Inverse folding.
């Protein structure tokens, strides 16, 4: 697409719909998967976390492989769309089977089921999401328009998560006198998995169909196809890691997602056992968090113009960590409200503010990757969005990989995995849980320090685009 020309709203909309697949998968993994396998199915927290960490090892190979493969692939259907299309059936099927293992499984067999179908689900998602992210960067090379594309993608992701929360806690996970804590029982997960899988497939197919008209206009379309060799992946990775800005961004994002992964994996336990909310309270909290993110989405381009992208990331992470961890620390020193209604209102408000701040960082970071790809093209003469976004995707998967492994170990160490009724948990266990949850925020602080060497601001990006245009003119002459 032309650098100075805005991407049509229809393309923006259909592209944004593709984010639903990852958002639905991420919500299921971060909110339900650990409490389902540990508290509902009886798998130990350490084994559940280990299964998800094993899957992360496979991601370390599959994500860069698909990214590099799609970078060098050429066909009349483009270099991204064929990979995205290949995931439409496998991803929903594997996701459903992950959340609906045979009832007879237990112990090591349940562990193996969780491991295998987590690997299959994530690999299928890789085939869609890595080329999908690269496609977004190829739609435009305009510095601020790129932020708008990521903004719309993120907004669609939040709307998808909102829909899942409302449906899940209004129809599937509903408290009753006979089942006061449905999220620690097996039956509700069948309908959740089925509806989520169908929604994934529909959103992915619609996004592919709606963006098919962009194929011949995308950056890199005219480049010569290269045969795929696995060694090329490592060559591409080494080239990418030589970029100082990329090293700073991806290391910071990796740490940030590990922090978010641990907090996300422990979030349902936090709401159920630490704050002792019923399913209606959990629904209100989660809706508030998502709405806060949705409200924050349109502010990102404004902040990028006034603070630039790097500063927006730093401030976004700082405030999100403060709003996420502050209430737990205040509860440990008995400064939070004791009235359940007042407590829920305050927690919901802080969750909304935390998401408002966090979305500023997440969208800005996604936009920054596209800028780095432009710098890469200037240095090496080729478009490599796939390899950059594959590493970004790998970092994002740490939210339910390394983060969940650490969360599962924590649940076993503090003995919280032994309880299914909120009121039965000893205060000492809850205190230890709160201390660990708050301590994890130190990872976010380290991530902020790592972001510092990033140097691609608006001025530098404009210089890169001028040099790229000169290169094109010289090649045409």
């Amino acid at each position: 697409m032309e650098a100075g020309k805005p991407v049509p709203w229809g393309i923006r909309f259909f592209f944004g719909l593709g984010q639903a697949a990852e958002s639905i998968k991420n919500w299921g993994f971060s909110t339900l998967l650990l409490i389902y396998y540990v508290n509902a199915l009886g798998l130990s927290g350490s084994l559940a976390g280990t299964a998800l960490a094993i899957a992360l090892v496979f991601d370390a190979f599959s994500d860069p492989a698909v990214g590099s493969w799609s970078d060098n692939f050429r066909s009349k259907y483009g270099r991204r769309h064929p990979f995205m299309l290949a995931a439409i059936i496998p991803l929903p099927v594997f996701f459903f089977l992950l959340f609906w293992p045979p009832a007879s499984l237990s112990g090591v067999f349940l562990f193996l089921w969780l491991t295998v179908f987590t690997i299959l689900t994530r690999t299928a998602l890789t085939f869609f999401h890595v080329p999908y992210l690269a496609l977004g960067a190829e739609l435009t090379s305009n510095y601020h328009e790129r932020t708008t594309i990521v903004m719309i993608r993120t907004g669609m992701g939040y709307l998808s998560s909102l829909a899942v929360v409302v449906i899940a806690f209004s129809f599937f996970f509903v408290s009753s006198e006979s089942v006061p804590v449905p999220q620690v029982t097996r039956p509700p997960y069948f309908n959740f998995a089925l509806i989520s899988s169908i929604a994934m497939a529909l959103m992915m197919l619609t996004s592919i169909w709606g963006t098919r008209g962009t194929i011949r206009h995308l950056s890199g379309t005219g480049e010569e196809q290269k045969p795929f060799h696995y060694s090329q992946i490592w060559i591409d990775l080494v080239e990418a890691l030589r970029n100082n800005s990329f090293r700073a961004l991806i290391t910071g994002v990796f740490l940030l997602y590990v922090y978010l992964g641990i907090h996300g994996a422990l979030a349902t336990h936090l709401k159920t056992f630490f704050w002792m909310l019923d399913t209606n309270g959990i629904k209100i909290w989660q809706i508030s968090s998502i709405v806060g993110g949705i409200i924050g989405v349109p502010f990102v381009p404004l902040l990028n113009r006034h603070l630039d992208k790097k500063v927006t990331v730093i401030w976004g992470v700082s405030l999100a960590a403060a709003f996420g961890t502050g209430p737990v620390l205040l509860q440990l020193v008995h400064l939070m409200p004791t009235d359940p209604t007042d407590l829920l209102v305050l927690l919901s408000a802080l969750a909304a503010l935390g998401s408002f701040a966090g979305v500023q960082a997440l969208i800005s970071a996604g936009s920054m990757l596209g800028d780095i790809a432009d710098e890469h093209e200037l240095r090496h003469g080729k478009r490599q969005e796939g390899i950059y976004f594959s590493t970004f995707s790998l970092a994002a998967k740490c939210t339910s990989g390394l983060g969940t492994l650490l969360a599962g170990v924590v649940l076993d160490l503090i003995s919280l995995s032994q309880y299914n009724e909120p009121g039965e948990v000893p205060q000492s266990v809850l205190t230890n849980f709160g201390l660990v949850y708050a301590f994890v925020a130190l990872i976010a602080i380290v991530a902020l320090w790592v972001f510092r060497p990033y140097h691609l601001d608006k001025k530098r990006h404009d210089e890169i685009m001028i040099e790229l245009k000169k290169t094109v003119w010289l090649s045409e002459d």
